[in-house]
Amino acid sequence: MQDLKRTKAMSLEPQIVEVDHSGKPRRFVFALMDNFTMLCFAAAVESLRIANRTAGKELYTWKIVSEDANDATCSNGCSFKVDGDFAELDRDDTIMLCGGVDVQQATTKRLLNWLRREARRGVTIAGLCTAGFTMAKAGLLDGKKATIHWENQDSFAEEFDDVELTKSVFVVDGNRITTAGGTASIDLMIKLIADQHGEDLANAGVYAPAGSSFRGEFGGYIKIAYKKEILKNVLLDTQIDFFSNYVENPQYVDVNWDLLITFKINEFLSASLMTQLIYDYDIKFGPAPGAPKVQFKELFGLGLGYNF
């Protein structure tokens, strides 16, 4: 007979980040639309939970609402109990409107009226995943920059020509916020937490455990390499890598290109020219918040060698 032993679960203590905060916690109100994307909601609310745990204090609270206060069902079939319906909020609240598939059908008249009313009162409103459509339909993005899930980019641009549509991961334009997909909620929350409480807290445990720089992605990868002596004593060595994330924004391809040219000058001297080009859609230091940018590096080397 197998000897079964009860083991005590280990509780991992978080790395505490000191935060100077004694005021009222900031409240986020997650409005779950019909067939919303679970990933955009979970990524955002978990970022808030991790921030509270890492800070060792309640910096954020949240509330979940739906149109009729009934359970909200996401696109994968899971249902969530909610705390209420589209009631009047405090001016300091932030609405996180969670969209998903069939966002046009989920954009009801009552939802539009609620968003317009809260916008008039000065509430900050964010549209996650496809919810930028609903915000634009309510007229909340007129004259502003915005982004939306890549599948909705073309139809959005045709319908809302008063909105400056970008392909950024997220866009913060005043008190209007939009994201471009499920995991983009993480990028947005890092930005919001960093603005309020500093980058140390924002970066601790969101992408990976504190102190780690690892982030896993699932996708397709192609590597092409070429090496040849193109001229006498001139060697060309190049390699290019392509990666597409199957889960998020598969239409964008990350590129890493290395080029090395080596010149043998004489028996003792050699020179090398190396260039590297990197384009990663998730590296956010472009001209607009959340926008990617090409990174380029050049190196020139001169070597002296002698065989004994």
Task: Describe what you observe in this structure.
This protein has helices spanning 38-55, 103-106, 109-120, 132-137, 153-159, 184-197, 199-203; strands at 26-32, 60-65, 72-73, 79-80, 94-98, 124-128, 145-146, 164-165, 170-173, 176-179, 219-231, 234-245, 253-264, 269-279, 295-304. α1 packs parallel to α6. It has a six-stranded mixed β-sheet with strand order 2-1-5-6-10-9, with helices on both faces. A five-stranded antiparallel β-sheet has the order 11-12-13-14-15, with no helix packed on it. The protein is elongated, with a radius of gyration of 25 Å. By secondary structure, the chain is α/β, with parallel strands linked by helices. It folds into two domains: 26-203, Rossmann fold, CATH 3.40.50; 219-304.
Shape: elongated
Write down the overall mean pLDDT.
Answer: 85
* Terminal-residue CA separation: 70 Å
Helix content: 10-25%
Provide a count of the helices.
Answer: 7
Strand order of the largest sheet: 2-1-5-6-10-9
Q: Which class do the helix and strand fractions yield?
A: alpha/beta
Question: H/E element string?
Answer: EHEEEEHHEHEHEEEHHEEEEE
The low-confidence parts are 1-11, 207-213
Q: Please, what is the CATH homologous superfamily of the largest domain?
A: Class I glutamine amidotransferase (GATase) domain
Radius of gyration: 25 Å
- How many domains is the backbone divided into? 2
Strand content: 25-35%
CATH topology of the largest domain: the name is: Rossmann fold
Output the CATH class name of the largest domain: Alpha Beta
Largest sheet features: 6 strands, mixed
**Total number of β-strand segments?**
15
Which architecture name of the largest domain does CATH use? 3-Layer(aba) Sandwich
